[in-house]
């Protein structure tokens, strides 16, 4: 196979990415972002955009304030090839609760294995 999937664990990268969204300790979250994201990484979804680690950290902190007490979890879909992974996610009160939001993200990694771009899509959003 040709591409980063030979050397980058994209499945594990998705878990670490979602862990960022659930980490409410600002210092620990920022450390995870600095490790996982490229310095010029970009995040875009229908509601928000962020360029760079600082803007992404602010975006996550804002989502945590808006959805306090809720947790992002992986959905059922995961697929990866080359330097791309797509996966579904859910936002819910706990592991067994009905999600209030559902979406999917496409993550692209750079040559160092860090996230270069996240493109998010929303399938179900809170009313």
List the helices and strands and how they pair.
Elements: H1 10-22, H2 26-36, E1 37-44, E2 49-51, H3 52-66, E3 71-81, E4 84-92, E5 101-109, E6 115-124
Helix pairs in contact: 1-2, 2-3
* Beta-strand residue percentage: 35-45%
Regions with pLDDT < 50 over 5+ consecutive residues? 1-5
Strand order in the sheet with the most strands: 2-1-6-5-4-3
Tell me the count of domains.
1
Helix share bin: 25-40%
- Give the oligomer, counting copies of the same chain as homo and different chains as hetero: single chain
| Structural class label | alpha+beta
End-to-end distance? 43 Å
> What CATH first level would be assigned?
Alpha Beta
Query: Helix-strand pattern, N to C?
Result: HHEEHEEEE
| Number of separate helices | 3
What's the CATH architecture name?
Roll
């Amino acid at each position: 196979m040709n591409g980063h999937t030979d050397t980058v664990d994209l499945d594990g990268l998705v878990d670490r990415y979602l862990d960022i969204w659930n980490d409410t300790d600002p210092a620990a979250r920022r450390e995870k972002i600095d490790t996982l994201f490229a310095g010029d990484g970009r995040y875009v979804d229908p509601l928000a955009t962020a360029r760079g680690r600082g803007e992404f950290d602010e975006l996550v902190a804002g989502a945590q304030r808006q959805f306090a007490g809720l947790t992002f979890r992986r959905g059922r879909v995961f697929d990866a090839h080359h330097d791309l992974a797509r996966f579904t996610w859910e936002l819910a009160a706990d592991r067994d609760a009905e999600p209030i939001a559902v979406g999917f993200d496409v993550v692209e990694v750079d040559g160092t294995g860090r996230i270069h771009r996240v493109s998010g899509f929303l399938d179900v959003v809170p009313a």
